[in-house]
Structures are given as C-alpha cells and as structure tokens.
User: Fold WD-40 repeat-containing protein from Cytophaga hutchinsonii.
Amino acid sequence: MQVYIPDKPYEIFSLTYCFETIYNMKQRTFVLLFFILTLSSYAQTLKLETVIQKGHSASVKAVAVSPDGKILATGSRDKSVKLWDQQSGMEIRSLIGHDHTVNGLAFSPDGKLLATSSADGTARVWDILTGKEIFTSPKNSKYITDVAFNPDGKSFAYAGYPDSASIYAIPSGKLIKRLEVNADQGSGYGISLKYSNDGKWLAIGEDNKTANVYRTSDWHLAYTFKPAEGWCGGCGTYVEFSRDNKSLFKIAHNDKLSQYDLQTGSLIKTFGEPVDYLRGITLTKDGQHVIAASDSMLYNYTITSKTVVAYKLYLSETVNDIALSLDEKEILVASDNMTAWALEAASGKVIRTYQGALQEQDKGGLNYNADNYWEYNIARYLRLKNELLLTKDDNNFITGKTGVNAIQWNISTGAPNKLYEGHTKAVISMDQSADGSILATADGAGEVFLWNTKTGALINRIKPHTEPIFDVSLSRDGKYVATGSWDASIEVYDVQTGEVSSDMYLKENSCYSISFTPNGLYLLCGRLDKSLELREPDSKKVVLSFIGHTDVVSSIAFGADPNKALTASWDGTARIWDVTTGMMLQKFKGARGMLHSAIYSTDSKKIITGGDDRIIRIWDIQSGQVLKTLNGHQSEITSLSLSKDGKMLVSYSTDGVVKFWNLESGLEFYEHVHISSREWMARTPQGYFSATEQARADIHFVKGMDVYAPDQFFEYYRPDLIQQIFLNRGSSPTGMQNVENSLQLSPPPLIKLACIPNADGLQATLNIKVMDEGGGLSEIRLAHNGKNMAVALDPKKVVEGKGNSYIYSVPVSLVRGTNQFSGIAVSKGKIESAASLVSVVSDKAPSAAVCHVFAIGIDTYKNPAYTLNYAREDAEAFAESVKRNGANLYQKVIVHGLYDAAATRQNVLDTLKSLEAHIALNDVFIFYYAGHGSMVDQNFYFIPTECTSMYQATANNALSAETIQAGFKNIKALKQIIIMDACQSGGSVEVLAMRGANEEKAFAQLSRGAGIHVMASAGSEQNAKEILELKHGLFTYVLLEALNGKADGAPKDGKITIYELKSYLDDQVPELNSKYSGKIQFPYTFSRGSDFPIVLE
Assistant:
C-alpha cells in the first residue's frame, strides 16, 4: 500500500505577514489565535498515533478526493471527517471539531488543506498532515451545506441557511465578500458552490432550480439561470463548470441537466429527462461527461451526443454524494449506512468499502437507526451512554455495549477475564456498591442483573422496564437499585428480594441520569426535558428542582461532602449543587460542546470533566478555573474514573479507547482499545503493545500521512513489558528504545517484488528490489502463500546509505493455483517494511497432497513429578482423528508418532530432519504436541521425556521454539499447522502471569518465524487443564470435537478449515474453562499463511 506523504508541512504564512495581520486585523483575534496555535504546532515532531479502523458511526454525507487521488475524505452525521487511503480503504485520520453533521468537503489545490462545512453553522479549514484546525469561520449561519476552494488556493467560499455565502482569504482569515443567496431550506439541499477552473467565476446553486454566477474579480452578479416561469420550492440546484470555463452545467431536483453559455448567458442545450432526489454532480477530466447521482441512480451524460446512460445503484442505503477517482475508473459514493463505497464507473459494481469495526460490531440488539426520523432521538441518547466501571481494586475495568454481555478486562494484561452473561440485549449502564461487592448491569431490554463480584454469581434478575434503561444506581450499602428508562419511569428495587420498593411514572421526558444520595434516602434525576430533580422514593414526590442547566444532565456524582452533588450537562457546563437547598454553589464553563462525565478528585478539591471536545479538564473547585488539560482522545469522552489513591485517571471514549493517565505527571501512560468482546490491543506511549491477532489487523499506527501495521513493530510486541509499564504507571525499564525514536533513526527499507514464471509453469524467478531508506538493512524475509521460505539473502548486498538498492533473484517452485509471494525488509533498528506482494497462477503443478502428522504425546517423564494423565492419549486421538476425517481429502495421511519414552530430544530432531526429505511443496504438515512446556528467559521450550527440570531447560535437553521453528522452515510444505496442548506447573499467580505474557509473544514469534498457523492451549498463565470428566486435556477435547464436525461453519460443506477450527477453539475453550474453573481463558491462535481445509467428512 502506498500512502500520500506530503513533502513538508503546510506553510501557514511568514512571520512578517503574521505581524501585519496582527496590526491590521485587531478585531479578528479569533483568527489570529488559530494561526498562532497552528504555527507553533509545526515546531513539534509529528506523533505516532493509534488508529482504529472504526469507520463512521452515522450516515456519510459527503465525499471528496485529493488532487493527487491518494486520499479520500468523508464527512458524516457523526460530526467527524475521516481521511482514508483511497486504494486500500485504510482509515488514516479523523478530523474532530464540528458540533453537528459535516455536509461539504473540498481539498485545496495542493491537497494539503481540507475545507469542511457543517450543520453547526461553521466552516473550517484543516491541515490534513496533522489533523489540526487552522481556521474556523464565525458562526453567522444557521446551517452550512457546501464549501469550495478557489483554484488559486488563496481563498475559499462557504454557504448555507438562511441567506448568505461568504468568501474568506486563506491564510489571513480576512472576509473578502458576503453574497446574498436563496437557500433551499425545505428539502435540505441548501446551497451548492463551484469555482471555474481559472477562478474567474463562482457559481452558486440555489433554491427554485436557480444558479447565480459571479465574476470573482469584482463580485458582480453576471448571470442568473432559472426557469422562465413557475416556482419550485425545495428544488435545490447543483452546478459544474465546463473544463474550458466557457459554459455552466446546472441540474436540480425534478429538473433536466442544462448547459449555459457564459459569454452570452443563453441556454445551449438540455439533456434527458428530469431527475428526482438529486444528490450530486461531477464532470470528467476530458469534459465530455457529466456524472449525476440521485438517491439510488447514476446518470452518465455525454455532452457531445446528448445521450444519457442511467443505471441503478444496488446499495443498501440512500446515496448522499459522489466524487470521481483520479483515474475516473471509480465513482466514490457517500451513503446512509455509515459507509462510503468505491464503484466501478463502467458498471456500478462495488470494488471496495470505506468502513470499519463499527459496521461489523455486535450491537447487542440496539439496532436503532440514527437516520430514521422515528428512531433518531433514542439512537442519539444511547450512543452517548458509553460507560466504563473501574473495579474497586483498580486492577480491572468493566464495559458494556459489545454484544449482550458485560465484559471485565484485566488492565495489566489487556485481556478479558470475566463475562457477566445472561442479558438479551446490550448492557448500557452499570454501577457498583461502595465496597465493590455488588455489581448492577442494566440493558437495552429493560432488565437489571445484580451480581456478586467475588464469585461472579447472579444475585437477582429484575425486569423493571419495557424499554432500554439509560442509567442505574446502587445505594451505597448495596440494598437498593434504582433505574431510569426510555419508558419514562423510575423504579427502585430491593437487591436481595427483587421486590419493588418504589415506582415513579414520569409520563414523558425520561430520566437520563440517576443517582442515590449518599444516605440512600433520595434520588437525584436528570431528565430529557433538561430538568434536574431531587425525588423522595416513598412519596414519589419531587423535593427540590435545581435551576441552571439548559440541556440534558448527562452525569451525577457525589464526593466527600454528601450534601454536594456534581453534574455534567450537554449545555457544556459542570455544576456543583447543595442538595439540601437546591442552590448552585459553583459553575464550570469553558468546554466546547456537550459534557458527558464529571467526577470529584479523591480529596474533593478538584473536579474532572470530559465530553464532545475530547479534552479532559481538571478544575479547581474554589476558583472555578482550569488547572490542567489532558489531550489524546479522538472521539467523545463519555466516562471518567479515578483510582483509590487519586493518582490514576481512566477515561473512556465512544470509539472504544480507554486511556490511563498519571495525574502526578499529567501524562498518558497506557491505552487499551477493544473492538469486540475478544479483540483488543493494549499500547504504551513508548510504542510497546500487546494485542489479539484480529486486533492487529483492525488497528494501525499513523505518523503524518504514513501508515504502519502493528506487525511492522513486532519487536515492540511485548505483552510482558506492557504489564510492567502499567504496574509502574508509565516508567519502562532502562535501555528500552522508544518506537518513535527507532522509526526516526532507523526507518524501514522499501521492498518490491516481481515474479516471472518459466514456460513449464512449475518454476518461476522471483526478483526482489530492496532500497535503504536511511535505516540500513538487517534482514529480508520471503514467504510463499504465507509460509516462510528457507532462503538466505545477504543484506550487505545493499550498500548502506539512503537511496542505495540491490535486486536479488531467487528461483522458486510453484503449486497449482495461486502462488502469492511476499517480501519484508527489516531495518537495523528492527522496524519492518510493509509487505510487498506478487501473485502467479499455475495450472500445471501436481495437485495430489499427502498429509503428514507428527504427533508427540508424553505422560511419562524421567522426573515423576511431571507425570501427566492424558497427553499420550490426546496425541494418539488427534492423529487418529485427522487420519479418519482426512481420508477423503488427501491422497493419504501418514502419522509419525513419538510417545512417552520415545519422545526424546534427539528423536524429535531426527524425525524433523527426515521429514525435510519426504514432504513436498503441495503437502500438508501438522505438528501436534501434548506434554510440558516451559518459559525460560523469554524463550519457550518443549520438554522431552528425559528432562528433569523445566526451569533449567537449556541444561536439560529441552527443545527451544527457535530450534523447532528452524525445522519447520526447512520443511517444504506450504500448508503447516502446529498445535500444542502444553502444561506448565508451579509458580505464584504473579510469576505465572508474567510467563503467560512471554509465552504469548513466543507463540506469535513461532508463527511469524516459520510462516505457519499456531494453535495452543494457555500453558503457563492459565495452566492447561486435564479434566477427568472429559478424559482429555480441555484444549484437545475441544479440538477433537471440532475435527469431528462441530467446527463446520456456515455454509456447512463437510470441510473443517483452519479458520473454522480457530473460530471454534476461540468460542468453546473459554466457555469450557469458565465452566470448569470459573474463569474465561482463551487459547493462543496465530496465523501466517492462507486458509485451507484440514479434514473432510
């Protein structure tokens, strides 16, 4: 993938010009402030950002392509703009700042700036390299629909409701001209804008099928093009200039495309029939075709012949906007289903989508559509209910709204360690008793579950409502639970008996936030009518009304003083109230946009707030002033929590990002991102990370406009170090390099592959060009269909120095079908290049395959303390299962077995050596190991039968994963699997946890190093389990069930493939572990190489 990298940051303006601006424009201090902040930002080094491939969370309303065609920009009803790599669909950056729907987008002619227009009444200009705003217009419009850059790049125009278009100079921010317009407000088209290519004309599409054309030299209205008679309110107009700037195309709702002469002002011709529900218009580079889109159709007008070709867009939702790719082979479409599409221009066929995890996320039954008129409000209210609960021991946090379970995550490892199961819809709100012994989880079905947190047992299940529960509160003593719901009622229940204590019917304007007072006698409720009330549950009466907030109260908190309540509101303020009098004691104002969370510091001398502007503010209560701001979130902050000692702050945003802050230093020291209930990443600012395999595909890093996959920093994949850094709240061991420093000092090389097949179709020549980008070259790795090739290329062939390159040539053998070769070059700082890929198809290679199963099972060890019960039985059962179920798939299945006393180190090595000579490229190789495994000095060891001490592995004939990996690499088979059910005994919980982190890295390295699929039980941290009832190790029991047909996913075809097997293990192993041990424990699964069937019924 190639990603646009600007030559240098956008030059804002010279210091001389800056001082002139200050002198001549004292009244425009708001503009000056933006410019000074932007100018200073370039003195800072660009940061390496974590980007989640999330996509938009609401309708995509606008699309635009950068002048070089490399970047696609999308604007959405979710208030954000996203930048994408146009060819790959990879999300690069979000531009956050607008307070309402983004309606229009326009790149500057040099592609370095992006102008946006919004329903919040502002237009903004952004530096796409940094994501920083460099200009925001005054809010003098109600609703802005379009924006356009002058081709000279020195000014831009924006327009919308109610009645004006404005032209501003860039970079000075000076207002050049304001023009009166007649906006279409009825149907929402508003105004459309277009400059001619020479910048001499500005056309404004207005209501009533009207276009006005102005000369930009003097802003004289030159022409008005409108119907000769009649009036069409709600008929917004789109405009486009011809390439020679001599004519204007105009089309409106319920109108034909028309072309006007700009020398005479006369109508040249009209095209086709009227088009309804128009959504966009664009012109091809040759000027011969106008492309227009309605909500469900595309129209291609040929200018010279006046012909029109129309075809239906078979998309799931309404079209909102269109743009052409640079080569004009693709039409980029914005639509209502949170997605942008790339369609083949010739046919309308979908080529790719621009979306992410939000489109695939399990919403737990909360399928309200924000684009549906009837569901807009509930969808909006629920979206901003996004809670995180920090457990009282500060070791875990709990989240909802991912599937139907509440999930508890261990902070130091990043992994989930408990599921609170039983809900039928997503968990929206949570609370815990003062001592942390009781947890309340409330969901979208109107139910509340009450849990014993020590045992995980369900105390009670209550259904107080028929609609989603917005908020839940436990009394401090844990005796009562109160809920506020969309059904406009408040309910109070006895936790232990489940009986109703009080019910209050509000008729309308539901309770959105609710909290017991510290004495448990009253309820404080923030309602959707913007009111805040103190209610007494027994009498069901309102005791006090608190006057002050002008929008919905989103959170309620109490501190050390039980008589003082802290509230946050969508009006952008936080306030402290005396709950005995109803009087406001302090107001905190200064956040931009809505606030969603406010909490007290542990000493109650400060408060902390977070909301729409993604800034955490720490305020002094006495003065009401901001003491400190914390920046880093890229989406709305909806939840804040403090550790018991008050030194660690946990913040949570709507994109699933959890950040941990050291309040003593004011620095972020840890970040956790969860994409689903099983896919997550934990990362430190130094760049060290731990993540599930799928998360590494959904999350990437961006610096400027340069995109890096997590695997390019595999040296920084350190689950063990992640734990240490969290526990030390940010400090890493001495001598550990920062990933940004490594990237700067040792950038990855460039690599490019080309493959030339021989005439026989059995062989090919692979050419590999490697170029030093300034970081030197330490290693080149090649893979064939994902399997690492046993080819050693001397990195010294590339003379050190930026720009130096060398072309290697390697003969390769081909298999029938697609042969994909990949190459990665590694800098001396261990930063990997993006993979270069090339594919060759062969139909002449032999197709018959033999499956070789190398099975090792060891019950009996020389040290009797290591005796196991089912390891040999597991290995023999696995080999027999593959032999039986693979009979219809392979030419034959050959089992190579070493059991108990035969499973010595030398016998294992000899068997691997023998297999090198007998296994062909097209064969399948499966290695199964059941026995003990050990982590020593961050290396994993297989423990043969003669070993007497697992923790002195190197001195006791153990087999390192590195040794085994080398053996696999020399085996030619492109399809390889390693399956391990390895036990490890002994050690404290803390020691086992650290071994588990190291083991995870070791297994990932084994998969990468050999280019194979690895599936393993959790052998150290989670102690692989032999269970009498199952008569197998738990992991192998699930494995055998899978191979016997249970892993056959939809569509059921009798085949069990690698990824079906992985999916089944990931589903069933945690479930059985939970059943037999009370903990959810996941297997390790890592994949390199393509999917393929293992067995066939």
In short: The chain has 13 helices and 80 strands. Residues 989-1010 form the longest helix (22 residues).
